[in-house]
Amino acid sequence: MYIEQGYKGKLGAWNYFVIPGLFILLMIFNYISTKIMVEESGESVELMMSRFIDMMGKNIFLVINLLVFVVGLLVIFFWVKFVHQQSLTNFTTSRKKIDWKRIFTMFFLWGTYSTITILLAVYVAPDNFELQFNWTKFLPLLIISLLMFPFQTSFEEYLFRGQLLQGLGIVTKSRAVSWIVTSILFGVMHAANPEVEKLGPIIMIFYIGTGLVLGAMTLLDEGLELALGFHAANNILAALLMTSTWTAIQTDSVYLDTSVVPEFGIMDTLPIFIGYPILLIILGKIYKWKDWKEKLFGRVMSKEEFFALEENRIEVDQFQNY
């Protein structure tokens, strides 16, 4: 009952949408201002990014971009803890305490998968990749990635799968609505990425599909732990192992993708429609998920129903301990 954990606060449902609303407005402003800059300068987003990177260096450019998310995550935690007065544990999971083992297990599983797929791509088409590994450049990148990417990925998870998922669920009383809407918004958030310009709008299927699988993990597992581990592993390994000159994140990674940018086609969506469901099935077996239909599409309890159930559980726990 992860969504219902949102009842454990002191304010009304409106408070769930203040931080997400401000962030969405900021993203819209950033998107419009970027479009204006592109039109006025006559440069593509890719060329603008290259110019900034040449001025600052890749690591400094990366740190500046990630600092926004560090501040954003701290703002969310402050709001939840001191304004909404909801504990960070209840904001993270329906369990009695945050399950760090789940986070690190998912990080290891998805990190291993990401590493294997990247190395396999290099093995299959070596001419499309350039080995650019350099210890003096890679070590600072490793430190930056391990320290700062968890802030970026955690900010996105707590924003979309935390505040918005809980808020929309409580307002609409529908798990499906909160799951699908937050996944679409998660995809739209990436619309300004250079990848969309290069690969075409169809890549939004990838972003929305990823939002759906992260939302499904959260609802089925009744907590954010798996989504936090998945997202951190995905972004950290991507930054460390593979980059290109036209992606949103450019780093001194092990490999540089030098291939001609293709149009993102229907075949490229197969991992989303096949791979992600397989991942959920595997996780379901590991963590013994039950009642998938109810958890994904069922009704969200009312506040009265939830606290009545909580009180009953406390009484049962006390009786068992006695």
UniProtKB/TrEMBL annotation:
Keywords: Membrane, Transmembrane, Transmembrane helix. Pfam families: Rce1-like. Coiled coil: none annotated. The keyword Ribosomal protein does not apply. GO terms for molecular function: endopeptidase activity. GO terms for biological process: CAAX-box protein maturation. This is CAAX prenyl protease 2/Lysostaphin resistance protein A-like domain-containing protein. It comes from Nonlabens xylanidelens.
